[in-house]
Specification:
single chain, 161 residues, alpha+beta, endopeptidase fold (from Nostoc punctiforme), 2 domains
Length: 161
């Protein structure tokens, strides 16, 4: 994943850290310090999203052997590291996971800058919009092309003696 807002530095307290889980998905959490990450996921390696809960893990458990990256935000938008961690701790035990409305990215971004949003879901929405617009434009072009083709055949057949 190429992103100028991601670095591979050692995390500091209050950093948002990302780890690539699949080519199109990153898992996010808040680095609490002392090898601890607060994140929204299913505990104990469960893959069932309905079991997801905001909880603590070690950095090794969080990364599961994959490299992690620190997500950078504009300094003027960020809470202090202490406030970021306090916000994360205030939601420990929450279990209202929803892939599109309340996922690990929503959680980490809210803790860091106070915005309940997911950069990954925003990207997915943009891709969906571009795909729909492209489909509509393509459909209009095909429709116009067919219409123009019918007119040409009508004109040429009406002009023949």
């Amino acid at each position: 994943m190429e992103n100028k807002n991601l670095t591979s530095k050692v995390p500091s307290k209050g950093d948002v850290i990302w780890v690539v889980r699949m080519p199109c998905y990153c898992h996010c959490g808040i680095y609490e310090g002392d090898d601890s990450v607060i994140h929204f996921a299913s505990p104990n390696d469960s893959k069932i999203k309905e079991d997801a809960i905001i909880h603590r893990s070690t950095l090794a458990e969080f990364t599961n052997g994959s490299p992690f990256h620190v997500k950078k935000f504009p300094d003027e938008k960020c809470f202090s590291p202490e406030e970021t961690i306090s916000r994360a701790r205030s939601r420990l035990g929450e279990n209202t996971y929803n892939l599109f409305l309340n996922n690990c990215d929503h959680f980490a971004t809210w803790c860091k800058i106070g915005e309940h949003r997911s950069l990954q879901i925003d990207l997915l929405k943009n891709v969906a919009i571009v795909t729909c617009v492209s489909f509509l434009i393509g459909s209009m072009i095909i429709k116009q092309s067919k219409k123009s083709g019918k007119n040409k055949s009508y004109i040429s057949s009406s002009q023949t003696p």
